Amino acid sequence: MWWQFMDNKLSRRTLIKSLGLAATGSLSGSIYSLMASEPQDFLNEDIYDFPMVGQVRLLHTTDIHAQLNPIYFREPNVNLGVSSSRNMLPHIVGTTLIDKLSIQPGTLEAYAYTCHEFQQNAHRFGKMGGLSNIKTLFDRFRSQAGGVANTLTLDGGDLWQGSATSLWTRGQDMVEVSNILGIQLMTGHWEFTYSQEEVLSNLNLFSGEFLSQNLRIKEDSLFEDDYFDLVRRQNGVGLFDEDFGYPFKPFSIREIAGEKIAVIGQAFPRTANANPPEFFPDWSFGIREEDLTTLVQDIKRQYEPAGIFLLSHNGMDVDLKLASRVSDIDAILGGHTHDGIPLPVEVESPNGKTCLVTNAGSNGKFIGVMDLDIKNNRVNGIRYQMAPVFDRLIAPDPTVEKFIKRLNNRVYDHNIIESRSATYSCNQDRVGKSFDSILNEKLAKTSDLLYRRGNFMGSWDQLICNALEYEYASDVSLSPGFRWGTTLLAGEWITMRDVMNQCATTYGETYTQKMNGSQIIQVLEQVADNLFESDPYLQSGGDMVRVGGLSYTISPKNRLGNRISDVKFLKTARSLLPYESYNVSGWAVVGDFPSGRLIWDIVREYIIQTKNSDDVFSVGDINHPTISGMRGNFGIYQYQGRQI
Questions:
Q1: Cis before residue 90, ω within 30 degrees of 0?
Q2: Average of pLDDT values for 86-115?
Q3: Are 27 and 393 in contact (CB under 8 A)?
Q4: Nearest-angstrom CA–CA distance, 138 and 60
């Protein structure tokens, strides 16, 4: 029996709730025919009335990146799909996505899910996210489901990193708030970028379960006393199964509303490539498709659950491929690529069963709500809803608000660790000051919209590249294509908190070094391959490295070694020469770490030193690369660079 809505003309409230109507089989009619949007006053509607349908409710967040407070976050205007992902979700942006969702510009939905008219809509509708708002909605959605006993709360990772306070507490602030939120199961990625001992310590404090079927203890480490000593210091956390080499539980069996549910964890499989492996010397990562296939069948035989779900940090393209190759997974609750899309994608698995692939966005903007209709110990139907978290529509939870206030009053002391380098392990200038007083420092008013998200350069990225060139007088600057980082509206004050929201990693040291032209192009080619490789299993899920000082053309459809061309210096229009040596600056090095000043201090000083007498700061021109061969691609909208 498929769930349907009786009225084909839906209010905005019903639209937001119904965008994810689907089932573990063919849809009953076209999902798109159920959509409409009426221009109503958004403040007069209760868009969070989500009555329970079925017996079990799963609540899902992902990629919050330690954003405790409500934020602005502009969705990408460039999210290119190549090969089989071309013009498919999640690689549809702007007004094309608005059309696909059958919504109207200028509505809550358009603001939440697209970059179209972002600043105008941001001023109208306000900030999104905020963990006190999420706690309020969690409690409400649980109550609507008949209580906590009928729900399971999941987080897909990248929860404990991304802010100054998470860096300064080594993730412990986010562990505490995770417990307040009532997160029961989670997996991870950036959580691993604290030291291995800090990761285990945080998991020791976490009230829920950390799951990962694709993480292993390296074979050599299983024969070393050091790892076992570390595990003993953390009360056994980090050695779930010595025989199989699992540091953590691969899955959890939960009885919800009298029904047995299995949830398998899938941590980011390319963590050791994307982040410094020195942080986790005893662990190895991978997709491990064959192991997952075997595990699913073992769970079916041994536990006979009504449904099996994958809590994933693979990235959506990887999840779509995985769903087509592993049978008997009812749905994938995904993360990593920050794709806020309300429509689950139906994928046929090898045995003909349909798996729903979802992704719940980032920065706390959305909560995924999945209701399960279970009959005869089988998931008979699924209704998936995305709840955009609008700050102006929600009363903040007082417990979380009290926690945030207490955290902000904490004093920066000599035990704070800011980097891997002993030189910068503690910023002496901050000692004795409260977190709030440090982070609320006003640096300048921005004349530009400051954003990061998109396959290529954003204005925050340009600011960082400019700051590196200013600091080191370099010919070229390189900044990672991180997808985390919040948005700041034109006219607002840039604070130190905003800067840290772009830069707060455990490896924020900067560098300057000599590189010849061939080496620079090789870096660009390798990162482009991580992003545009046709096989999703070989992608890393980040965005293109940001480049200061150079213009270039990129051809995403080409193969490795043939994507980057026409590389020239912006100031002189001279070509980059293969064997000539250039000064290159950058930060967030995955390999051997440098000892240059921390990036957030460099950015702070650059803003202060280059703002005008009216305290106004302007980024200037954005260095967008020329994109070749992507005309007609739905993953590009209002691109400010050249297209050929």
A1: yes
A2: 95
A3: no
A4: 10
Cα dihedral sign, 29-32-35-36: negative
The pair of three-digit structure tokens given for residue 441, joined into one six-digit string: 């420092």
Structure tokens at 496: 């130190």
Residue ranges and CATH numbers for the domains of the chain are 12-71+127-398 (3.60.21.10), 440-627 (3.90.780.10)
pTM score of the predicted model: 0.93
Residue 33 banded pLDDT, cuts 50, 70, 90: very low
Phi then psi for residue 55, to 5 deg, are -110, -30
Q: If we measure between CA atoms, which residue out of 451, 457, 450, 434 comes closest to residue 493? A: 450
Bridge partners, residue 57, by sequence: 151, 371
Kindly list the distances between the CA atom of residue 451 and the CA atoms of 80, 269, 486, 551, in Å, as whole numbers in the listed order: 18, 27, 7, 20
State the SS3 of 180-241. HHCCCEECCCHHHHCCHHHHHHHHHHCCCEEECCCCEECCHHHHCHHHHHHHHHCCCCCCCE
3-state secondary structure of 44: helix
Write the CB contacts of 359 (distance below 8 Å, at least 6 apart in sequence): 62, 90, 316, 319, 334, 335, 337, 338, 339, 340, 341
Tens digits of residue pLDDT in 551-583: 999 999 999 999 999 999 999 999 999 999 999
Concatenated DSSP letters for 446-488?
ESS-B---SSS--HHHHHHHHHHHHHH--SEEEE-------BB
The token pair at 129 is 């996210």
The residues, any chain, with a CB within 8 Å of residue 554's CB and separated by 6 or more, are: 456, 524, 528, 544, 563, 564, 625, 626, 627, 628
Ramachandran bin of 74, using left for φ above 0, alpha for ψ from -120 to 50, beta for the remaining angles: beta
Distance in angstroms (rounded) separating the CA atoms of residues 610 and 552: 27
Count how many Cα atoms sit within 13 Å of the Cα of residue 437 in the half-sphere of its side chain.
10
**Cα–Cα dist 258/269, whole Å:** 33
Tell me the two tokens of residue 133: 């708002």
Q: pLDDT digit string (tens) for 267-292?
A: 999 999 999 999 999 999 999 999 99
Phi-psi label, residue 625: left if phi above 0, alpha if psi -120 to 50, beta otherwise = beta
**Whether the predicted pLDDT of 593 surpasses 90:** no
Contact criterion met (CB below 8 Å) for 391 and 77: no
Q: C-alpha angle with apex 512: 510 to 516, nearest 5 degrees? A: 135
Assign 3-state DSSP to the chain and report helix, strand, coil percentages, each to 5: 30, 20, 45
SS3 for 284-312, per residue?
A: ECCCCHHHHHHHHHHHHHHHCCCEEEEEE
Mean of pLDDT values over 464-490 = 97
Amino acid at 417: I
**How far is residue 188's CA from residue 269's CA, in Å, rounded to a whole number?**
10
> Mean pLDDT throughout 138-144?
98
Residues composing the chain: 644
Q: How large is the average pLDDT for residues 532-544?
A: 90
DSSP states along 354-395: EEEEEEB-STT-EEEEEEEEE-SSSEEEEEEEEEE-BGGGSP
pLDDT recorded at residue 4: 29
